[in-house]
Amino acid sequence: MSDSAPPLKSVPLDTAALKRMYSLMLSTTLADQKSAAEARAGRLMAAFYPVRGMEAVCAALGATMRREDKMVSTYRNLGDAMAKGMSLRSIIAELYGKVEGCSRGRGGPMHLQDQAVNFTATTGIVGSGMQIAAGLGMAEQMARSGSAVIVTFGDGATSIGAYHEGMNFVALWKLPVVIVCQNNQWGEHTAIADYAPVTELAKRAAAYGITSERVDGFDPMACVNALENALARARANEGPTFLEFMHYRLTGHTGTADFSYVPKDELEAAMRRDPAPNFRAWLLDNEYLSEQQILEIEAGAEHAVEDAFQFAVTGTDPDQADIYEGVFADESFARRASGE
Predict the structure, then answer these.
(1) For the chain, first and last CA: distance in Å?
(2) Beta-strand (E) ranges in 173-285?
(3) Does pLDDT of 115 surpass 60?
């Protein structure tokens, strides 16, 4: 991890887009920190997987995806869900297992979804998102929809067999899939160099004949540029693109996990590139936004996060009588299972 980070690249985004990016980046950071704190305090009684370090990529996804594009994410999904336009209230309520959550409290942190914005699925099975994305990509190609499918996952997923099957399929059929590898350089508690003989994952992806690129995942403008190009290719039916976004996990594997095993110098270097504070400074230094505009965005983000958590903690607990609802295709099975 280099101490001397390159300057952020510039792309032609209007003021409104830059405001949305900073708002999304900061809201993701604040919601992530609050969720982890709630998990450590025992008030959020579910495994929460932080996204700290990924905020620049998430903001870039939010700036480049269209509503009709479909997205498949993994269990480290908070930023992806916000980028796709999901209600923060419904996300946080789902973390708490409340009826008001996006999956009615039945999925928890690992299973956010919202078909209204085409946040199609999240999965806790590492590497399985590629195959889901392959099926969705085939459907979009057959329908000639002109829409893209975006699938996100961490570097560890590239060691899973299902991932390679999915990669082969999307490459063979030249499907409109943008493959977003969030390389945070840790597979749970194992450094990438200890589990992958070739650590440049874009090179491995290129072996499938897929257009591949390694991108600075701490630079939101570089992320926007790479995603714009990849999404344009997908929408033009020119095949899949693999983007390896290089950043660093700034927390433990889960919100409550110890991460003292992370080399101190690496973590300190990564923290100096913390996405939201660096983007704030860049916006001000280049006079894209004024101090007043920045403060308004920050107040709005803080309010939105506090509102979402208040909404969630005062939400409705599921009724145990509904435990079999939606489980069986034939409701008579549900009645028998519940003893009726």
Answers:
(1) 61
(2) 177-183, 186-187, 190-191, 211-216, 241-246
(3) yes
3-state secondary structure of 83: helix
- Interacting residues of 31 by C-beta distance below 8 A, sequence separation 6+: 78, 82, 88, 91, 92, 305, 308
Single-letter amino acid, residue 122: T
Phi, psi of 211 (to 5 degrees): -60, 125
Residue whose C-alpha is closest to residue 44's, from 303, 322, 309, 311? 309
Helices within 42-148 (DSSP H only): 55-64, 78-83, 88-95, 129-143
Q: Is 297 helix (H, G, I), strand (E, B) or coil?
A: helix
Rg of the chain taking only CA atoms, in angstroms: 20
Q: pLDDT digit string (tens) for 280-339?
A: 999 999 999 999 999 999 999 999 999 999 999 999 999 988 877 777 777 776 667 666
What is the C-alpha separation between 137 and 61, in angstroms, rounded? 18
Q: How many CB atoms lie within 10 A of CB 314?
A: 11
Token pair of 8 as six digits? 């952020």
For every residue of 45-58, DSSP letters joined together read -S-----TT-HHHH
Q: What is the pLDDT of residues 16-54, one digit of tens each?
A: 999 999 999 999 999 999 999 999 999 999 899 999 999
Consecutive H or E run containing 211: strand 211-216
Helices (H), strands (E): how many in the chain? 12, 8
Q: What distances in angstroms separate CA 274 from CA 40, 183, 224, 247, 259, one per listed residue? A: 22, 15, 17, 10, 17
Backbone angles phi, psi at 12, to 5 degrees: -75, 85
